[in-house]
Amino acid sequence: MTVGAGHSHPLYRDGDSPLHRAPAEAKIVCLVLFVLAVVATPREMFWPFGLYAVIILAVWRVARLPLRWILPRMLIEAPFVVLAVLLPFAEGGERVSVAGMHLSVAGLYAAWGIVIKGTLGVAASLTVAATTTSRELPVALSRLRVPALIVSVLTLMIRYVDVLTAEARRMRMARISRGDSPRMLHQVGATAKSVGALFLRSYERGERVYLAMLSRGFDGRVPPLAVGAGCVAAATPRQWTVALLPAAAAVSVAVSAWVLR
């Protein structure tokens, strides 16, 4: 059964760095530990987050990820930044005057925590996404003993998200070729009908794919890819040690922050 049409996804950046060659399961564990360390750090302390940023910049250097490529893709966190900007005005408690505005101290700390922790989390996640192909992710999750059902859903989602995107693009092009303007307010009804039609087509496609998979002996588990056919061998103890160095550094920073608090 073929579940992937390609090796890359929109956030992947082709390269041959040590991080690209590292097993995906080690990178995923490193990401989880790093994010947990960042989240566990007291938001009232500022220096640990500077060290976290240095760790990420060092990883970007090893992975050969240029800032001009990765920084625009971090705009995905913009909605959370907007929410954070409103917190100093909405929170109560002690207030402080900043540029003539009376802002909540608790709100300022909350806004800082959301922005910095969200930014570091997004940066770390994009680092893993930029150095890991779509075929490696399901295999890595299987090696990490993630339930087979979740791995199957993820695998099929990666495979068919491009199919659905292309379908939506064709439907939009068909509307435009018939004189429609999807951006006009009076076309909201037509846009809603298009979304409904896309949902029905996706549901029907999913049923057909599932029946086809069952007829070919699918038992709920995605068959593992052979080494060299889109995925690397399982991580060795040495690879685990090297890959977890950024996470170990982050955990050390978090522990130091709590000790010195």
From TrEMBL:
Compartments where found: Cell membrane
Superkingdom: Bacteria
Name by which UniProt lists this protein: Cobalt ABC transporter inner membrane subunit CbiQ
Keyword presence, Cell division: no
Native organism taxonomy: Bacteria, Bacillati, Actinomycetota, Actinomycetes, Mycobacteriales
Species the sequence originates in: Mycolicibacterium aurum
Topology relative to the membrane: Multi-pass membrane protein
The entry's keywords: Cell membrane, Membrane, Transmembrane, Transmembrane helix
Record field: transmembrane: 46-63, 70-89, 109-132, 144-161
One GO BP: cobalt ion transport
Main location: membrane
GO cellular component: ATP-binding cassette (ABC) transporter complex
